[in-house]
Amino acid sequence: MTDSIYSDLKQLGGATVMPTSPEEAELERVPNPQADVNYNVRFTAPEFTSLCPMTSQPDFAHLVIDYVPGDWLIESKALKLYLGSFRNHGAFHEDCTISIARRLVGFLEPRWLRIGGYWYPRGGIPIDVFWQTGEMPKDVWIPDQGVPPYRGRG
Amino acid sequence: MTDSIYSDLKQLGGATVMPTSPEEAELERVPNPQADVNYNVRFTAPEFTSLCPMTSQPDFAHLVIDYVPGDWLIESKALKLYLGSFRNHGAFHEDCTISIARRLVGFLEPRWLRIGGYWYPRGGIPIDVFWQTGEMPKDVWIPDQGVPPYRGRG
Amino acid sequence: MTDSIYSDLKQLGGATVMPTSPEEAELERVPNPQADVNYNVRFTAPEFTSLCPMTSQPDFAHLVIDYVPGDWLIESKALKLYLGSFRNHGAFHEDCTISIARRLVGFLEPRWLRIGGYWYPRGGIPIDVFWQTGEMPKDVWIPDQGVPPYRGRG
Amino acid sequence: MTDSIYSDLKQLGGATVMPTSPEEAELERVPNPQADVNYNVRFTAPEFTSLCPMTSQPDFAHLVIDYVPGDWLIESKALKLYLGSFRNHGAFHEDCTISIARRLVGFLEPRWLRIGGYWYPRGGIPIDVFWQTGEMPKDVWIPDQGVPPYRGRG
Amino acid sequence: MTDSIYSDLKQLGGATVMPTSPEEAELERVPNPQADVNYNVRFTAPEFTSLCPMTSQPDFAHLVIDYVPGDWLIESKALKLYLGSFRNHGAFHEDCTISIARRLVGFLEPRWLRIGGYWYPRGGIPIDVFWQTGEMPKDVWIPDQGVPPYRGRG
Amino acid sequence: MTDSIYSDLKQLGGATVMPTSPEEAELERVPNPQADVNYNVRFTAPEFTSLCPMTSQPDFAHLVIDYVPGDWLIESKALKLYLGSFRNHGAFHEDCTISIARRLVGFLEPRWLRIGGYWYPRGGIPIDVFWQTGEMPKDVWIPDQGVPPYRGRG
Amino acid sequence: MTDSIYSDLKQLGGATVMPTSPEEAELERVPNPQADVNYNVRFTAPEFTSLCPMTSQPDFAHLVIDYVPGDWLIESKALKLYLGSFRNHGAFHEDCTISIARRLVGFLEPRWLRIGGYWYPRGGIPIDVFWQTGEMPKDVWIPDQGVPPYRGRG
Amino acid sequence: MTDSIYSDLKQLGGATVMPTSPEEAELERVPNPQADVNYNVRFTAPEFTSLCPMTSQPDFAHLVIDYVPGDWLIESKALKLYLGSFRNHGAFHEDCTISIARRLVGFLEPRWLRIGGYWYPRGGIPIDVFWQTGEMPKDVWIPDQGVPPYRGRG
Amino acid sequence: MTDSIYSDLKQLGGATVMPTSPEEAELERVPNPQADVNYNVRFTAPEFTSLCPMTSQPDFAHLVIDYVPGDWLIESKALKLYLGSFRNHGAFHEDCTISIARRLVGFLEPRWLRIGGYWYPRGGIPIDVFWQTGEMPKDVWIPDQGVPPYRGRG
Amino acid sequence: MTDSIYSDLKQLGGATVMPTSPEEAELERVPNPQADVNYNVRFTAPEFTSLCPMTSQPDFAHLVIDYVPGDWLIESKALKLYLGSFRNHGAFHEDCTISIARRLVGFLEPRWLRIGGYWYPRGGIPIDVFWQTGEMPKDVWIPDQGVPPYRGRG
Ligand SMILES: [Ca+2]
Ligand SMILES: [Ca+2]
Ligand SMILES: [Ca+2]
Ligand SMILES: [Ca+2]
Ligand SMILES: [Ca+2]
Ligand SMILES: [Ca+2]
Ligand SMILES: [Ca+2]
Ligand SMILES: [Ca+2]
Ligand SMILES: [Ca+2]
Ligand SMILES: [Ca+2]
Ligand SMILES: [Ca+2]
Ligand SMILES: [Ca+2]
Ligand SMILES: [Ca+2]
Ligand SMILES: [Ca+2]
Ligand SMILES: [Ca+2]
Ligand SMILES: [Ca+2]
């Protein structure tokens, strides 16, 4: 069983090595098989980790990405490796979240894209970062990401 | 107790066999008894399963379909058999979700239709697919589908 | 302690008998004491049951009704008896939900009305039915009905 | 430590007696110290109780009040006593909820006000009452009251 | 990076084919690297599906397996393939749940094993099946499986 | 595909009529295919309804039954019809819950049985009824039924 | 439809007046129709209110009562009136909770009784009071009351 | 309305000043009016704050205290002031939690006491501290404190 | 690993002392590295505490701040110290919440800012305060703050 | 403000470097200031990550550790660094969870210790690992870790 739209992929199914930095990571894309309609694809990545650029201590985040594909779909295994490439990379919360989104925007040229970065608390105060490429398209359905707010204890 | 609008149905109440592919599955429809008003019908199918076209491993999804009927209602047993027919069929998440919706659109000619496909995680990252035929009709009530976001562990 | 706006009611406070069919049930109404403002009244009826018209097996639903009263308020005990009158009555999910709403619309002439019918699953796939008389009035507050989606198991 | 805007208050800090009826209760107000911006103040009163005017049996409600203050803020202890004054007072659900809101509107002349009255079930069917003085102001932030719907059992 | 205790495994890392029946599925095991202490390993399989032996319609279940390993650990990929092999196999709920557990008991000779089978509702009434090989060992920690009960709607 | 242990069943698969009283309902049983081990089977029936013997008004309950089968398993369709037969039958909460359990005990001769009856509130105060045939067997696993407590509103 | 075990009741079905103090309230009891087995009956009373004996301000509590009946069942309407009689009665949290339980113990002579009094916070710190007549009987099933703990905000 | 067992209290009802250290805080106690039975009293204090002894930064905790009173009840306002006295006091999590409990043990001589200290995360890792004076008394009912575990984000 | 945009910061990484009043606290800011797009940054501060200006008793709140940065980002450690500086400062709920927001507005000149102050209950009635600088910007994504409403008990 | 029991610590408060392997990480301990009583200390570490030894892909877990200290308390910053040292280390789920616990047991000589390792799903099936050093001590209070079970989607 094969699928011709995937025939150019390099990483899917073969042996893969985690790239050591975001720059080294190679995104891959496949033609959108339903490009004549506008729909939303959501990736939920609860396993994101990077390093604090000031202290080199690990930071953790739960990321959710929504996008309305144009001509291209992101290939999910390559996306996973790209996100994994931040493992030993220093980046601030705001900068890191926005730059992931912008790299996807540049690579996929989606009709619209949104990212939510929900960071684990440091100093008792978590930071969330929310971005989208512009006003939510009216005829496309983009459900709320629904991540529960941080509550402290009790 | 019978209902004449159901008198042409083939599968309801009789013995039924699960169709072996989506193509083989036969949808059925009945006249909409309240066609002079616009309302929304929601089907929730937490038991959807198909195969990955690359690896033939099973995939699972929780599907929710909202539609505003025009002249026709979908018959629910036939819908169930149609969804069951993906059991041994290979399909990508995005393609599969959208094509189910589009087959219903073609068959029912609804005034509006929305599908949410909430797929179980693979590689730690679940994919959700959201589509609707166009902007949500203003005078019809379409509640949020309310499926909780994927949270990982903890 | 009495209240003159209730002085014409027949069923409130006296002995009552559950009507044996929706047709037999008598709705009652009282003048709206706050008719000079637009507000929303919500009834939640988690105890609705009717029969399947094809098999005569019982069906169950959780119903929520929102309405903006005009000159009249529905009397709640009569509403309860009306809903109870479906106990031995055959009706399809879509038809039953919409017809309850339309009878209330005819009887109360509300400024606006909405019904949500959340039916228990049959064949693994529950059906929800959502209707309103028209676009939600802009200056009235109509909170989401907030019924959690069906989740299957796990 | 004192605060001059509170210097005219009668009930705060002194001994207080629960008023025996809503008419007897005296609301108090203080100048709004941030009157040059529009903001929302929410009171949540999970301890409201009144009597049924037909049967004199106690009724219970969870009340939530949102308002955008103009020149005045409600003093919270006086509000608490006013709400407590319904303890031995007969009032229907719809009428009681709306009249509390309207008394506050008359006394505070807020820029906008909303009340949600979430009544405990009687006869298996709870009633919720929702009112606001008009369309939600566009530049003010009024979060959903988020009270969970009644679910029956199970 | 390799691990000698895994050196005899056949299915891990290589291409794998879903076995077509439970009989055909081959379980695999590795030596328990911490066999000198008693601990509990839990597998949660929310993606179980089999066929009803009477009607050949698909059944779905959420399975949770706890076991205290003796000399052997189950290899997780082989377990996944074994569970997947029920996809086109007919089995009743009670029989199916218990037989999965007993095959693991025979193959792994664990110090203790427990299975919970939480089946999706049929006819409105779900069945759960709970088994363990004997009284819970006193010095081992076996947390509750904590699967929420079925609630119907509302 | 057939299963000989079910070959004597009368109601499964054929046309069925809801019995008009509990006395009229016929339970059915099949040999326990795993009778050499002790396990627990749970039925969750969120759709139970009966009548109040004093007022003939409908009562509703969410029932959960756990039992450790001996020689027999209850046949689930017959159980469903038996529970449905209370639809027009008058019974008090305590009596009704216990008598359902005791009829099952007499018919199945289980090694142990437990019933939880979670009744919808009347007069603001729900009643729950809990019974088991004796001390929980030590070597069998009986998870908590986990039905959430009644909370009123708010 | 009548039930002879209820034939001596005074308050059920007739007009009732809320007693003005606990002393004035008259409990009623009926013979236990299933007295040959040990089972648990739970009443949940989310609508309890009394007065603070120091300040005369209203206090509120959510009460849950479990008891294993001996020869008698409490009649639920009389129980409701008894609980309602605390409405204008001054009582401390600890004393009030325990004395309700002990009056029931004296009147019903149950085989075992437990009360949980979950009081609304005063000064930011709620008090819960828990009592039972003795060690939980081993062969009777007494589920946890499951009232969620107080959490403050956030 | 007064209550003689409270006649010796100094702080209740009068003006109070927050003590500036735990040593300065004065606990108060009243005779236990139900001392002939064993019951549990739970205080939930979601507003606890102290200082880190190393950095002087504020720490926060949610505290829950259960105790079975002997001859004395703690007076709740004095307890609140005692807990408030940690506001500017340096104390480690483990030491602080245990020493609060031990001061209460010394002052009240309860039959049994338990404390749960649920501290807000520092460095991503919250600490909880759990202590009780000894084995849980068998005939007294001590419900689980039920504080939800820390989950991070997502 | 350093980041030049942080090179002017005074408090980050060095020894810090909690300022003794809001006036004394020094906010710090860094250039917004993604200033060419509009995004939202959320801080959740579940550890806010101040004093009541009338009674000097501690008050507690859960604060959530959303802002769309312009040229500047708030430095999170300085924000934490600023919020901590209210620890021994008297301020009313409404005034305190709004003034924190306005100080941030003055210092950061954000494109938009919103604050939610969720205060712990006093007298059984919590107050929430909600403010934003103006209508929510249409092309920026500002998720609901999602703090659950206060529920009392039960 | 200092605390003599911490005077020998090397890592607390100074600059720290994440150790590159578990072997390199240095645990630190301080004398238990309340060693004359038995209490439980819980660490919750939702940010644990290691590498799969077969594929070098990252694995993630939520870890919870309970221990009853004897002469020593673990120093929390050193614990955090030790857990962080698994970031680039290959380890199987079962082995990794148990070996963390055993290193703590060797270093702290606690009276009792328990670990729960809740791993993120791989192949749709998460693994949880539970260990304790022996039967739960009877007079110490060890609350359930309460981590919710994995649910898949829907
Ligand atoms: Ca823009
Ligand atoms: Ca909290
Ligand atoms: Ca379109
Ligand atoms: Ca998480
Ligand atoms: Ca229309
Ligand atoms: Ca599920
Ligand atoms: Ca209007
Ligand atoms: Ca056995
Ligand atoms: Ca329900
Ligand atoms: Ca017995
Ligand atoms: Ca409430
Ligand atoms: Ca005793
Ligand atoms: Ca001890
Ligand atoms: Ca404005
Ligand atoms: Ca409640
Ligand atoms: Ca052992």
From TrEMBL, chains A, B, C, D, E, F, G, H, I, J:
Enzymatic class: oxidoreductase
Coiled-coil annotated residue ranges, if any: none
Biological-process GO terms, alphabetical: tRNA queuosine(34) biosynthetic process
Catalytic residues (UniProt): 52 (thioimide intermediate), 59 (proton donor)
A Gene Ontology term for the protein's cellular component: cytoplasm
Main subcellular location of this protein, as a coarse class: cytoplasm
E.C. number: 1.7.1.13
Keywords, comma-separated and alphabetical: Cytoplasm, NADP, Oxidoreductase, Queuosine biosynthesis
Function noted in UniProt: Catalyzes the NADPH-dependent reduction of 7-cyano-7-deazaguanine (preQ0) to 7-aminomethyl-7-deazaguanine (preQ1).
Protein known as: NADPH-dependent 7-cyano-7-deazaguanine reductase
Organism: Epibacterium ulvae
